[in-house]
């Protein structure tokens, strides 16, 4: 906790939008430190009999995880076997037998013997004689209040003397993990942790508490219902997916593992920064094969779980199939064009033809092209990065526009943030402050309160025109990046900005000054038509403007509460810990906070950091 407080010294920073960014960076750094402490995980020894005992809560997915663990090592050339020592739960042996048969792994259990210690000893002895290298013993699921089952677990451990005891955690139970981890740790020596149900929606905060409690590293994570949905735990990709930054290496590994000609073609194109609509169609087909859809989408920068229908994988897959259906109505020229979005925009009649052929609306086709553009621009941005790396020389400056002032010292994190469309809030804030107008001061006041109206956006669009290169300014805004810009054409980008301002000129004061303009338009859709007619534009143009406004609005809403925060080092103590936790939770991105287990997860993490700090001082 002391380390966290020392890192967050808000009084030394100018009042502004960077406080939230600072706090988020410090919290994430401490999360990584909690997960990645210096304890080398146990690994089985080849050509030796290794006994591994699995323990965990009822319903944590322990039996399935035993099979996944055995299957993982079997695929890597190990001779593995499963022993079912769960005689408490009805159907436990049947489940293990069914799982083991599917992946062709030898197993042992008994329908007649009720003593789990005897079953465990017999199974281990049989497989040891047959020279199995990895014997996995599944035990009964337990609860912190079931003392008799904990004594039974201890007896099994003493009888088979396992080389490693793995604690299986269900990520979806949140902060209850801490209590249960303490109970298990008090009885047996937990050596490793496997986290299950991290399939795109589950929270990871409870796992952090369990790690801190047991002082044991995570070795694998379960990411879906299939036996292949099992990954070696890696700290950085885990944190990246938690933040929605993506895991390109993980996506690449999954694509390579499928080993088809389409995938090889995609990799070759990706290296050259090329990405066609046909490539996207083929990768959508792959996404359906890669296990959990949410898991795959979370690996893609700029997509994260917002591509998913909330808590509904079936709806998300239906959306993907609908997009594939639209592409089925495209011809070869459209599918194979090196920039499909440019082709459609230059020949808008193609939108209508494809929409009619697929039986969908014009907006559905345009939505598909927007998604394609995000993929395309991500690939294009990565083109040439390998050539820079090959020189093994550092980047010192970057040119950001045609003017002499468009020249910046290279900063790695900001460069990557802009590359992935995460933005540069501090840079944008500095530019706004430098203009020093009344509108800008009003904007900063509203930003602190988390308020952002359509009129505010109109005034900031006016500012963007004064800030030098439009592309440079837009790339600083989270969620926008260069996809807001017309490719290599500043004039077209400015024309788009002016068109959006023209649309807002046709809005009335109620619409411009409403505290949530997007909500107003969605609740009263007739406003779209009136504004479109007044501005002489299409309905889709007005809807596109509201989408852009929504992104600004949500960004501002997340920054609400900065002015209330004050000096954290001076204010925090055991009495007002709850208030400080509440204030910190307002500053952290909702997606990150959700995966940490909400405010209770954040509070638990602070307690763990506090305990860790005391340990460090002692």
Automatic annotation (TrEMBL):
E.C. designation(s): 3.6.5.4
Classification via Pfam families: SRP54, SRP_SPB
GO biological process: SRP-dependent cotranslational protein targeting to membrane, translocation
InterPro entries, sorted: AAA+_ATPase (IPR003593), P-loop_NTPase (IPR027417), Signal_recog_part_SRP54_M_sf (IPR036891), Signal_recog_particle_SRP54_M (IPR004125), SRP54 (IPR022941), SRP54_euk (IPR006325), SRP54_GTPase_dom (IPR000897), SRP54_N_sf (IPR042101)
Source species, domain of life: Eukaryota
Stretches assigned to the SRP54-type proteins GTP-binding domain: 217-230, 394-407
Catalytic activity: GTP + H2O = GDP + phosphate + H(+)
Keyword Membrane included in the entry's annotation: no
Principal EC category: hydrolase
UniProtKB keywords: Endoplasmic reticulum, GTP-binding, Hydrolase, Nucleotide-binding, Ribonucleoprotein, RNA-binding, Signal recognition particle
GO terms under cellular component: cytosol; endoplasmic reticulum; signal recognition particle, endoplasmic reticulum targeting
Compartment list: Cytoplasm; Endoplasmic reticulum
Annotated GO MF terms: 7S RNA binding; endoplasmic reticulum signal peptide binding; GTP binding; GTPase activity
Similarity comment text for this entry: Belongs to the GTP-binding SRP family. SRP54 subfamily.
UniProt name for this protein: Signal recognition particle subunit SRP54
Organism: Rotaria sordida
Native organism taxonomy: Eukaryota, Metazoa, Spiralia, Gnathifera, Rotifera
């Amino acid at each position: 906790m002391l380390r966290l407080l020392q890192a967050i010294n808000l009084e030394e920073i100018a009042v502004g939008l960077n406080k939230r960014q600072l706090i988020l960076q410090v919290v994430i750094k401490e999360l990584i430190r909690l997960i990645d402490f210096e304890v080398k995980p146990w690994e089985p020894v080849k050509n030796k009999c290794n006994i591994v005992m699995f323990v965990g809560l009822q319903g944590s997915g322990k039996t399935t995880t035993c099979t996944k663990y055995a299957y993982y090592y079997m695929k890597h050339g190990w001779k593995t076997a499963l022993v079912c020592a769960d005689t408490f739960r009805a159907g436990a042996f049947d489940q293990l037998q069914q799982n083991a048969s599917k992946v062709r792994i030898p197993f042992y259990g008994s329908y007649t013997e009720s003593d789990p210690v005897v079953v465990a000893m017999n199974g281990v002895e049989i497989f040891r004689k047959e020279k199995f290298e990895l014997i996995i013993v599944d035990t009964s699921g337990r609860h912190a209040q079931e003392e008799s089952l904990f004594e039974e677990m201890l007896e099994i451990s003493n009888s088979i003397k396992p080389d490693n005891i793995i604690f299986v955690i269900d990520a979806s139970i949140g902060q209850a993990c801490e209590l249960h981890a303490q109970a298990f740790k008090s009885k047996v020596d937990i050596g490793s942790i496997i986290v299950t149900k991290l399939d795109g929606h589950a929270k990871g905060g409870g796992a952090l508490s369990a790690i801190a409690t047991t002082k044991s590293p995570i070795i694998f994570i379960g990411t879906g219902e299939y036996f292949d949905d099992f990954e070696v735990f890696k700290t950085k990709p885990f944190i990246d997916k938690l933040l929605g930054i993506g895991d390109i290496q993980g996506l690449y590994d999954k694509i390579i593992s499928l080993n088809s000609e389409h995938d090889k073609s995609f990799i070759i194109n990706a290296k050259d920064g090329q990405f066609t609509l046909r490539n996207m169609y083929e990768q959508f087909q792959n996404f359906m094969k890669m296990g959990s859809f949410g898991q795959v989408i979370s690996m893609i920068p700029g997509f994260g779980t917002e591509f998913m229908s909330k808590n509904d994988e079936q709806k998300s897959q239906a959306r993907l199939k609908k997009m594939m259906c639209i592409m089925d109505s495209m011809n070869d020229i459209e599918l194979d064009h090196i920039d499909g979005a440019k082709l459609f925009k230059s020949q808008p009649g193609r939108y209508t033809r494809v929409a009619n052929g697929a039986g969908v609306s014009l907006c559905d086709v345009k939505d598909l092209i927007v998604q394609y553009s995000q993929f395309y621009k991500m690939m294009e941005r990565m083109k040439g990065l390998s050539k820079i790396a090959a020189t093994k020389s550092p980047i010192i400056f970057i040119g950001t526009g045609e003017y002499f002032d468009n020249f910046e010292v290279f900063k790695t994190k900001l460069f990557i943030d802009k590359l992935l469309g995460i933005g540069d809030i501090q840079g944008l804030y500095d530019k706004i402050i430098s203009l020093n107008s009344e509108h800008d001061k009003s904007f900063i006041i509203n930003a602190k309160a988390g308020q952002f109206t359509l009129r505010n956006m109109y005034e900031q669009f006016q500012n963007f025109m004064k800030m030098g290169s439009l592309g440079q300014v837009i790339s600083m805004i989270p969620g926008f990046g260069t996809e807001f810009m017309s490719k290599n054409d500043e004039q077209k980008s400015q024309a788009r900005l002016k068109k959006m301002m023209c649309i807002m000129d046709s809005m009335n004061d109620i619409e411009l000054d409403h505290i949530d303009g997007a909500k107003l338009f969605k609740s009263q859709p007739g406003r779209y038509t009136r504004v479109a007619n007044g501005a002489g534009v299409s309905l889709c143009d007005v809807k596109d403007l509201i989408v852009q406004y929504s992104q600004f609005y949500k960004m501002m809403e997340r920054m609400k509460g900065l002015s209330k925060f004050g000096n954290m080092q001076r204010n925090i103590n055991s009495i007002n810990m709850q208030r400080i936790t509440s204030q910190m939770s307002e500053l952290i991105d909702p997606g990150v906070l959700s995966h940490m287990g909400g405010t209770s997860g954040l509070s638990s993490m602070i307690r763990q950091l506090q305990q860790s700090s005391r340990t460090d001082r002692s």
